[in-house]
Design goal:
There is one protein chain. This protein has 700 residues and is α/β, with parallel strands linked by helices. It has five domains: 111 residues, Rossmann fold, CATH 3.40.50.2300; 173 residues, 2-Layer Sandwich (Beta-Lactamase); 82 residues, Helix Hairpins, CATH 1.10.287; 149 residues, Heat Shock Protein 90 (2-Layer Sandwich), CATH 3.30.565; 126 residues, Response regulator (Rossmann fold), CATH 3.40.50.2300.
Length: 700
């Protein structure tokens, strides 16, 4: 063993130490310096001045023992430990052994300091890993979590740069590595996500497949025969040089690899920033083994955190779906209950409205007095408004039959809705001294399968709400677009917007923010109509930022050209339950006159038995019957008529029209169902359709 001894210049001990064996190396410390001390050793002193200097040296180098060698009084060192105080007169063998023992003690002191330093570093690293683990486990936002993983891994390994890949299913169903995060202290690095194949041809892919870390001194100087090769494209693009690389898998406790962490270019100082490739070549070091252990430990914690984050996101999504489902179920139950209640009143209410409307229309044909006609038209309009209100309430019943859907040009629905609301956004606005900037943008072709009138009502409700949200004027945009297999209609206003609490309630029946007007049924009706058409309604809004309502409906084939108008001269049988003494109903009388004016031959009957007898005698092209007629019901009339003459069209008129199942009605012989009350001109149009369909093909 070599024993290293240190003395000071011109010390009296130098001559005494020359008698020591050859394995005792004596080194003279330079004046005021101790740079020659690189390990354990023994400083031999003879005076108090030398002792003071030796103590200073030991404070800088703890692995030093001090031995005094003097015949005079031993120099004092209060509070300091001197290994031995020897007299020069002692036998050389004693001095030799004492110095050897002091050197061994210095070695033990060095090992103790090294162990102490190692334990302190391990403690710090453990505390750092523990703190990192706590932060990772607390982070629920996946994007923030991934960024935190790379940042903390770089911090504990002194890495200049780092990146993270996650294992995800590719388009073909096979796993792939998706590049999610990149960080670089020295050069700003633009991020562009992409995916790579999980294979050993790439460094990240190799680690993902093997599940083992890779610690590479220089990725540009891989040993011959390596399965993988570095991709230098990124380095060339940003002017960087990837040298040392530590690549570790993110493995879950069950051994699955869910990602790969890459740490690049180990620095000697965390704060160091590289300014050139030459600097990287010179200063970058390999990742020490302990950094590899730290990175693997962090990666294990990161894998659990990523999995927890994914599970949390899935749980949140499931909770949101459950909440939405519960909300929809509750809303559907409310609407169903309301529909049942409304349906119970519908027939009687509609019959009352039919009587009011029919008599108002009858009196209109009999009076030439302008003021009387004006008052009658007010009554007529009130009855029609009442009928519309009843139909809106009936929209909440989800189990009733509906008219069969037909291809509809949604652009035409937009045109009709804008025309219907023109009075509000143009005429009324001008009268109030305000202006609306109305913009209509239509897709080239926007056909949907549905009921044109219902869709028109749904869109009109949304437009009216948008206009109401801009009482001082503003911008209204109505736009149709094609998105994959859907037609999307957007109504965007620049109004006062709404809070999240309001937005959550807007589809509830009778909910309204308009204290002076509105029934609160408009958007509820829209919701019901769009849902029945297999579509969705989405609302985006913030207070003061306007509102965007988006209706998304399944697309349909192009709208067929309208059928030609039926020729006049058809035979029509009218059957009504509210006949007067001469067998003529007020409403059917008006309708009979209108149809006669169209050139048809019309016969009226007050009850079903008489009507069937007339039908059997004369034969008719079209039968229009009330559901409830004296004698034989409308259903029986339809069945008997179809049995006798299948080519004859049958139209059923009832106050329950919105609750009649269309398919069931067709099976019972009814071609069209009309809800009371109705305007005479509307019924004339329906009659034309029924007769036209009879001449072309069976009604659908």
């Amino acid at each position: 063993m070599i024993y290293r001894l240190f003395t000071f210049p011109n010390s009296t001990v130098t001559g005494l130490l020359q008698a020591l064996p050859d394995n005792y190396q004596c080194v003279t410390l330079r004046e005021g310096g101790d740079s020659v001390i690189t390990g354990p050793g023994v400083v031999v002193v003879a005076t108090s001045t030398e002792l003071e200097a030796a103590l200073f040296v030991r404070r800088q180098h703890p692995a030093i023992e001090i031995v005094t060698l003097t015949e005079s009084e031993t120099p004092s060192a209060p509070g300091e430990v001197i290994y031995a105080a020897l007299a020069p007169s002692l036998p050389i063998a004693v001095i030799t052994q004492a110095l050897a023992n002091a050197y061994v003690q210095a070695q033990l002191r060095e090992e103790q300091e090294r162990t102490k330093s190692h334990l302190a570093r391990l403690t710090t690293e453990f505390q750092d890993l523990n703190a990192i683990g706590i932060r990772l486990s607390a982070e629920r936002d996946t994007a923030k979590l991934l960024d935190l993983i790379v940042a903390k891994a770089r911090e504990i390994t002194y890495a200049d740069a780092g990146s993270l890949y996650l294992v995800e299913p590719g388009d073909s169903g096979e796993p792939m590595l998706r590049f999610t995060i990149v960080q670089n202290d020295s050069i700003p690095t633009p991020f562009k996500g992409y995916g790579i194949e999980v294979s050993s041809s790439s460094i990240a892919g190799h680690v993902a497949l093997s599940g083992q870390p890779l610690n590479l001194d220089d990725v540009y100087a891989l040993p011959p025969g390596s399965l993988f090769a570095p991709d230098r494209t990124h380095d060339r693009q940003i002017g960087y040089r990837t040298k040392s690389m530590l690549v570790v898998p993110l493995k879950t406790p069950d051994g699955r690899v869910i990602g790969v962490l890459q740490l690049i270019n180990c620095k000697r100082d965390r704060a160091q920033r590289f300014t050139s490739r030459d600097e990287i070549e010179r200063d970058v070091r390999s990742f020490p083994a302990r950094f590899e252990d730290l990175a693997c430990s962090l990666a294990s914690q990161a894998a659990v955190a990523v999995e927890n984050s994914r599970l949390y996101a899935e749980l949140q999504a499931a909770m949101a779906r459950l909440e939405a489902s519960q909300h929809s179920t509750i809303q559907a139950e409310r609407l169903r209950a309301l529909g049942e209640m409304a349906g119970g009143l519908a027939n009687d209410f509609n019959n009352t409205l039919a009587a009011i409307l029919g008599r108002a229309q009858l009196l209109l044909t009999q009076s030439d007095d302008t003021e009387v006609q004006r008052q009658l038209r007010v009554i007529e309009q009130a009855a029609l408004d009442g009928a519309r209100t009843m139909r809106r309430m009936l929209e909440f019943s989800r189990t009733r039959g509906r008219r069969p859907f037909q291809p509809v040009d949604f652009n035409q629905v937009v045109t009709d809705a804008m025309e219907l609301t023109r009075g509000q956004w143009r005429d009324d606005a001008r009268a109030r001294g305000i202006a609306y900037d109305v913009r209509i943008e239509k897709a080239p072709a926007a056909a949907v399968l549905g009921d044109r009138y219902e869709l028109g009502e749904a869109l009109t409700n949304v437009i009216v709400n948008a206009l109401d949200a801009m009482p001082s004027g503003g911008r209204l945009t109505v736009r149709t677009t094609i998105d994959a297999n859907h037609v999307v209609a957007s109504v965007i206003d620049s109004g006062f917007g709404m809070t999240e609490a309001t937005r959550a309630k807007i589809f509830e029946p009778f909910f309204t923010t308009k204290t002076d007007k509105g029934s609160g049924l408009g958007l509820s009706v829209t919701y019901g109509i769009v849902s029945r058409h297999g579509g969705t309604v989405d609302v985006e809004s913030n207070p003061g930022e306007g509102t965007s309502v988006t209706i998304c409906l399944p697309a349909a084939p192009e709208v067929p050209a309208p059928a030609k108008t039926v020729a006049a001269g058809s035979r029509i049988l009218l059957i009504g339950e509210d006949a007067n003494g001469d067998g003529e109903t007020h409403v059917s009388g008006l309708l009979a006159d209108a149809l006669s004016a169209e050139g048809h031959h019309v016969v009226e009957c007050a009850d079903g038995d008489r009507a069937l007898a007339v039908f059997d005698e004369q034969g008719f092209d079209l039968v229009i019957t009330e559901l409830e007629t004296p004698g034989v019901s409308g259903w029986d009339v339809a069945r008997i008529v179809k049995t006798a003459r299948p080519e004859t069209s049958v139209v059923l008129v009832t106050g329950w029209g919105d609750r009649v199942d269309i398919d069931a009605a067709k099976r019972r012989g009814v071609d069209l169902v009309v809800t009371k009350p109705f305007a005479v001109d509307e019924m004339v149009t329906i009659t034309r359709r029924a007769l036209s369909a009879r001449r072309q093909s069976p009604l659908r």
